[in-house]
Amino acid sequence: MANNADKSEYRGKRAVVLTRVSTAKQEEKYSHAAQERQVQEKLIAPLGLRIVDEKKHIIHDTYSGLEYRYRKALADILEMGERGEFDLLCMDVLDRGLGRRALARELFRMQLRELGIRILTTQESDHTDDDSLEGQIMRFFKGYKAEEEINDFVRRTRDGKREKALGNEDKGIPQQIIGTGDRLYGYKFVLNEKGVRIGYTLNLDVIFMDEDGTEWTEVTIVIFIFESAANGVSTHQIARILNAKGIPTPYATRAKRIRGMKEEAVWQRNTISNFLKNTAYYGEYRQFKRATVGRMPGHKQPVKRVTSEDEQVIISIPAIVTKDLFEKANRRVAQNKNLATRNNQTSKESLLRGGFAKCAYCGRSLRVKRVVDTQLSGKEVAYFYYDCDKPYLKGGGKCSGCSIPVDLLDRGVAEYILELIRDPSVVDEKIQQLQAENPTQKQQQRKLTNLNAILREQETFRNNLAAEMHKKTFSERTVAFLNTQLTMLEQQEEEARRDLADEQRVQEQHEILDRRIAEFHRQCQEWREKLDDPQFTPDFQFYQDAVIFLGINVKVWRAGTEPRYEIYTAPPEIMELLS
Questions:
Q1: Which DSSP helix (H) or strand (E) runs through 425?
Q2: N- to C-terminal Cα separation, the chain
Q3: pLDDT tens for each residue of 278-318
Q4: What is the DSSP string of 163-215?
Q5: Above 80 in pLDDT, residue 260?
Q6: How far apart are CA 555 and CA 339, in angstroms?
Q7: Which CATH number belongs to the domain containing residue 109 in this structure?
Q8: Nearest C-alpha neighbor of 370 from the set 360, 359, 380
Q9: 308 shares its domain with 355
Q10: Residue 323 shares a structural domain with residue 376
């Protein structure tokens, strides 16, 4: 039976009208009204259908038809059907009412049929009330077609956005920022002649002035955050400093408020952390950092995943901080987490807490353990030890563990630090050794040699091809061979350049390394000058800063072993470039 073929059997029956829009913006306009009018004109009035309760039996739903799921509106319809409140479910078109997922909407239709309820639409070609094989095939075919159409639309839209972000250097089309979200803090949008966002420029507007007359812009605030983090100030402390000064938050400068928020916005630790992780602040603005996975059980919203660097598009924007400062700030924040008091509830005065002392047997970080000894006089005396948790090992068995007094090991580390500051040649020798053994550097040299060989071979073939073409009677077979060889060499050149990852980057890395080595010696020189001052006494903070800066690590053995511990240094700011 074709859809709506025998109209007399529907006459006078009770109906529920379902309309659906995809977004709240569509809901604000006329989509619900338009669908309801179509149903009234083509189904309700001609067939004399009855809507018993207009408030209850005219259902307006807001949901994306592409991401079908069993939503509340459909659950309400099934519940009303089980109570026998209506006979027909009416809608404009099947795609609009139940979405584009063919199988999911067919299952819903079957549930209604079991309750004796039929579905009608204004389009007979939907075959919504056709139980024949032809009707089922047509519904599936139209659902599959609708699903493919929307998938193609999403794909074209996504690819179009990506092309805009990438730009086209050959055609003189620059890269362009994509999206309609909030501007990046510290920047203003650059608009083209049509008012479309195409880039970012620094926001140098003064938003706050200190009591001493210091002017604060968003740019200076970002610099303050990065410099503070690089100097060891925690994200909690940075937030407190900004709040104490009364500096407006990003929400305030963008004139935004969170829904339901009654109090004034304040700087939060998470805001500071997000700033510190954003590569845009050293000039690399990353787009498409997340991609939608789709609907998943247990999640109300579509799940998103973090994309790889290959999937992202990096656009160059004016940098606020250097990449060196960015990396230094993030390294120090990571170290602060290890040094946090929550990771050491027993004692604050331990230089190597936070993973700087390791068990020589299992490699695990030693934790500070507090032991209280009650003397004969009844006085309780606390002792502190670096202690191994004695974990189970991968190969089987349990680590025999090790333990050493905090005072003993910290005293040895303090002496080592003073010696190293006086004579940093130990670090210099290690740097030279690593540079000589650095496999990355040797590999880069091999790739560069390979690329140069390809370029020389290309030049030879091009010269041979030019000579052949100048002959009065040139050989077509020779020309074809030379062209083929050149094509192959061009492909090899492209692969070689991609593997090399740009010779300039390697050179820049060496320049950064030289700069960091110079900074290392400069810091040691400053500390030497302090130590030469007879009135200067190194305190705990002095030694802790040195442990972090020098990359001090200690390997500890059990009592009775000689040596009891081994101290070695690997300045993180230098070693990461040599790894």
A1: helix 425-437
A2: 74
A3: 999 999 999 888 887 766 766 667 788 888 888 888 899 99
A4: HHHH-BTTTTB------SSPPPTTEEEEE-TTS-EEEEEE---EEEE-TT--E
A5: no
A6: 18
A7: 3.40.50.1390
A8: 380
A9: no
A10: no
